[in-house]
Fold this sequence. Notes:
Layout: E1 8-13, H1 17-26, E2 32-38, H2 42-51, E3 56-58, E4 71-74, H3 81-90, E5 96-99, H4 107-117, E6 123-125, H5 133-143, E7 150-158, H6 178-194, E8 198-205, E9 215-221, E10 227-233, E11 243-250, E12 253-258, E13 261-266, E14 272-275, H7 290-305, H8 313-330
Parallel strand pairs: 1-2, 1-4, 2-3, 4-5, 5-6, 7-10
Antiparallel strand pairs: 7-11, 8-9, 9-10, 11-12, 12-13, 13-14
Helix pairs in contact: 3-4, 4-8, 6-8
Amino acid sequence: xxxxxxxxxVGVIGLGKMGVMHACILNTFPHITxxxxxxxxxxxxxxxxxxFPNATITDDLGRFADLSLNAVYVATPxxxxxxxxxxxxxxxxxxxxxxEKTLSSSFQQSQELCAIADNFGVNMVGYMKRFAVTFNKAKxxxxxxxxxxxxxxxxxxxxxxxxEIPEGSKISMLRGGVIEDLGSHVVDMAVWLFGDLTxxxxxxxxxxxxxxxxxxxxxxxxxxxxxxxxxxxxxxxGYRMPEFGLTIHGTMGTLHVNDDELRLELNQSPxxxxxxHDMDDNVDFLLGGPEYYRETLHFFNAxxxxxxxxxxxxxxxxxxxLLEQVREKCR
Length: 331
């Protein structure tokens, strides 16, 4: 809630799958009003008007400037994040900004946005896996050093989104490439769990078109000699939903973690296992996954308290830096 007890006014930019989901989740919070929605699609604006009859519905972001918004959500395709976020700040549309990942399409653009954001309120990038119970449990175990010294890890991000897309199709390019769209989540997980990483080598396969970036494998080094391998693809068959996971090796054992479970295998102990449904994975409103609700709650707790969000622009900049390294190694 705002400091004077009134509702927080929020605008959502982009009404694709993620924008609609965010708008619906925001609408369940009693201290938040979805005051404005922006999209280029006539059809989506008509649908939005029925769902949010009291909101300003527009295809012109400039109309947001006079609406006294407390925050905006940016849920457009990645290639236009920079342009839109910069306009939000330049036009002083709202002091607090949440954007879907990645922050932008390049490390240079993200650096610029971080510098601009320092003059405004709370900012956050939607790396929602930080709010998943399984990955939080993994971080807790690593903070307790249950694996001893960390030696290596393997990380993956797989989906079947384009498994059946024929060669020559340009549809995957609209989402900015697999490393940004899918791989950024598991890269953020690794940076969150292990700290700064350096890319040693990388390979990319362009299966749909010469520029579509559909499968990426890369190797990294981290603190204390830690070595890691990432595999990212949106052309893997058999994945009804995107899946993210890591296997982490230490001197005292191994930890396996994905969206649904953890398995801890210590050298001198029987294995231990935790399942997502046994870990109090409950929220007040479920849409898309519990982590999306927790992410929203965290953002607005930060807005009302004036504290930093856990996945703020500066944190997300580390992900963009790693992705930039991957691209350079692939050239």
